[in-house]
């Protein structure tokens, strides 16, 4: 019994669905998040109302799921945001769903679903389209994919307010980085809008999004995964421009991550910070310092930690910032020691998350992809020893999740619709992009071929991809042209290695301790173009220009 809502919530699992089948009742699935203000508001206004709670307890089997802890449930039942209020048949198929419901709306929906269930039963339920259509449309990879995405960004670019689309306005770090190399003016104006409107100038860190076209209506929760990605994006803008106006937002965000979101006990980053009281954000600096800190979800999740590690190491590689390096190393050590077992990335460093039927960690594509990217970044910037773990993660993912020519989000097992295969585009793209880096770092072409097959598996629908999937076009471009690869025959940290990291192409791959080169030299490669050897940073910069021209 949850005293704050009066609803007798069950945990997600087989017991709840067995109860629904035995009692011939629908399941009311509530998807929430600790950082979600509207979720708490619905608890206070709707689920705490005695008659609604009694109605739910008497006629439904109520199940509550924290979306950060059960990502496969989130991805199958999300109604477009949180909270999501989803009514299910006992087999997990969907009767109907909505987002936030106030008391009046909830009463109407409860009555409607009860009537639907009494008259049609499970016959009224359906399986969502992404889980019915197993295979995405495949196609050929061509330069038109990159051109098409750039055109889509241009068409949806907001000339007045910056960013893409009208509302809501999200920071879209992958789109920022894609545009940075292909339309710098559009990209930098959007970076400026994100920095000016979403960065918390007092405490650091980026708010999640704004509800309105002019970047007003700020949703002030701060999530580790989006902040980690934005550190990387702003670091890359600093690399290409050399301007402190792009370095400083990354630096302020790192300060936020390494203080407010640092979990000392776990020696890693916590998951999120809730928005806090709305009035506190309008206070002056003195009064705000005295106000209560918004609550932090201390959960340590592998995927979001990996994004933060990658962001901090990217920033360190351009700035030599010791704080960024030190905290990235500590978090990476925790993830490798506590959450990585035989190539499987456990979702979280806590109880209360999804486990497989054997009680072991579930192999989830999003976690595998994110940690692979963090490990390859670490191999490029800090120590090549992380390549062993990177290879283990890649091989385990290929072994367990590769199906036909793309990857499933996890094993096709579990209750509800978790036994239905799902091929998430964003995680497939992230994994393919990381495989391109791994191929360059290891010299193993098979990883590049897996990346090619994966990207081809979705190419038939590429014209319909929105700006949120700009990374798909980035990965296709890197695959077709070949990324700029700089091989350096020195240990990480040498002057030549540091110069290679700072050459202004954020899509490059730097390979330290490279084989086949004279000690103390470096060379640049792109596709079939290979430069002469360089012995100094100045020579290396010149060699890179010859390869790119």
Compile the SSE list and pairings.
Elements: H1 14-23, E1 27-32, H2 37-47, H3 50-59, E2 61-66, H4 71-77, E3 84-88, E4 94-98, H5 103-120, H6 129-132, H7 143-156, H8 173-182, H9 184-198, E5 209-210, E6 218-219, E7 222-223, H10 224-241, H11 244-259, E8 262-263, E9 268-269, E10 272-273, H12 285-290, E11 296-297, H13 302-319, H14 322-339, E12 340-341, E13 344-345, H15 365-381, H16 387-401, E14 402-403, E15 406-407, H17 425-442, H18 445-456, H19 470-481, E16 485-488, H20 495-501, E17 509-511, E18 522-526, E19 529-530, H21 537-548
Parallel strand pairs: 1-2, 16-17
Antiparallel strand pairs: 1-3, 3-4, 5-6, 7-10, 8-9, 10-11, 12-13, 14-15, 16-18, 18-19
Helix pairs in contact: 3-5, 7-19, 8-9, 8-10, 8-19, 10-11, 10-13, 13-14, 13-15, 15-16, 15-17, 16-17, 17-18, 17-19, 18-19
Percentage of helical residues?
A: 40-55%
Outline: globular
Please, what is the average pLDDT? 95
What's the CATH topology name of the largest domain? Glycosyltransferase
Distance between the termini: 67 Å
Low-confidence stretches: none
Largest sheet: 4 strands, mixed
Number of structural units classed as domains? 4
Indicate the CATH class of the largest domain: Mainly Alpha
Structural class: alpha+beta
Strand content: 5-15%
Structure explained in plain terms:
The longest helix has 18 residues, at 103-120. The strands form seven sheets. A four-stranded mixed sheet has the order 2-1-3-4, with helices on both faces. The chain folds into four domains: 14-126, Glutaredoxin (3-Layer(aba) Sandwich), CATH 3.40.30.10; 146-156 and 348-478, Glycosyltransferase; 167-341, Glycosyltransferase; 482-548, no CATH class. It is of the alpha+beta class. The chain contains 21 helices and 19 strands. Strand 8 (262-263) and strand 9 (268-269) form a beta hairpin. Helix 8 crosses helix 19, helix 17 packs antiparallel against helix 18 and helix 17 packs parallel to helix 19. Helix content is 49%, strand content 11%. The mean pLDDT is 95.
């Amino acid at each position: 019994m949850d005293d704050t809502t009066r609803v007798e919530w069950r945990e997600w699992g087989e017991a709840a669905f067995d109860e629904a089948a035995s009692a011939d009742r629908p399941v009311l699935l509530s998807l929430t998040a600790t950082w979600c203000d509207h979720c708490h508001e619905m608890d206070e206004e709707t689920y705490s109302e005695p008659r609604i709670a009694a109605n739910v307890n008497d006629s439904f089997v109520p199940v509550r799921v924290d979306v950060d802890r059960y990502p496969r449930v989130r991805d199958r039942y999300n109604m477009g945001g949180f909270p999501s209020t989803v009514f299910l048949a006992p087999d997990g198929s969907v009767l109907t769903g909505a987002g936030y419901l106030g008391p009046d709306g909830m009463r109407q929906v409860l009555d409607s679903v009860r009537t639907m269930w009494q008259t049609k039963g499970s016959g009224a339920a359906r399986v969502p389209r992404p889980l019915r259509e197993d295979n995405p449309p495949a196609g050929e990879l061509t330069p038109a994919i990159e051109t098409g995405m750039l055109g889509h960004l241009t068409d949806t670019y907001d000339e007045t307010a910056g960013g893409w689309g009208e509302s809501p306005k999200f920071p879209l770090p992958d789109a920022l980085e894609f545009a940075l190399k292909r339309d710098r003016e559009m990209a930098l104006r959007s970076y400026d809008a994100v920095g000016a409107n979403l960065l918390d100038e007092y405490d650091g860190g980026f708010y999640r999004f704004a509800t309105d076209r002019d970047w007003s209506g700020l949703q002030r929760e701060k999530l580790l995964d989006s902040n980690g990605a934005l550190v990387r994006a702003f670091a890359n803008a600093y690399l290409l421009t050399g301007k402190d106006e792009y370095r400083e937002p990354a630096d302020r965000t790192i300060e936020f991550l390494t203080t407010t979101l640092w979990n000392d006990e776990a020696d890693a980053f916590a998951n999120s910070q809730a928005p806090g009281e709305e009035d506190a954000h309008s206070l002056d600096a003195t009064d705000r310092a005295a106000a209560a800190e918004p609550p932090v979800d201390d959960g340590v999740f592998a995927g979001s930690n990996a994004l933060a590690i990658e962001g901090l190491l990217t920033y360190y590689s351009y700035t030599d910032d010791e704080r960024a390096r030190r905290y990235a190393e500590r978090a990476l050590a925790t993830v490798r020691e506590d959450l990585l077992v035989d190539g499987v990335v456990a979702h979280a460093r806590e109880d209360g998350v999804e486990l497989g039927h054997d009680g072991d960690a579930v192999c989830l594509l999003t976690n595998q992809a994110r940690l692979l990217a963090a490990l390859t970044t670490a191999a490029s910037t800090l120590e090549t020893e992380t390549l062993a773990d990177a290879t283990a993660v890649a091989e385990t993912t290929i072994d367990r999740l590769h199906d036909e020519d793309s990857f499933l989000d996890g094993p096709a097992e579990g209750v509800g619709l978790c036994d239905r295969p799902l091929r998430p585009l964003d995680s497939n793209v992230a994994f393919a992009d990381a495989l391109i880096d791994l191929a360059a770092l290891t010299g193993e072409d098979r990883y590049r071929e897996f990346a090619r097959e994966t990207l081809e598996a979705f190419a038939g629908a590429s014209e319909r991809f929105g700006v949120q999937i700009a990374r798909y076009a980035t990965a296709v471009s890197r695959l077709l042209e070949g990324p700029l690869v700089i091989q350096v025959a020195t240990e990480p940290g040498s002057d030549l290695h540091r110069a290679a990291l700072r050459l202004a192409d954020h899509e490059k791959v730097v390979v330290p301790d490279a084989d086949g080169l004279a000690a103390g030299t470096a060379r640049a490669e792109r596709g079939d173009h290979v430069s002469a050897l360089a012995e100094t940073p100045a020579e290396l910069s010149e060699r890179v220009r010859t390869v790119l021209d």
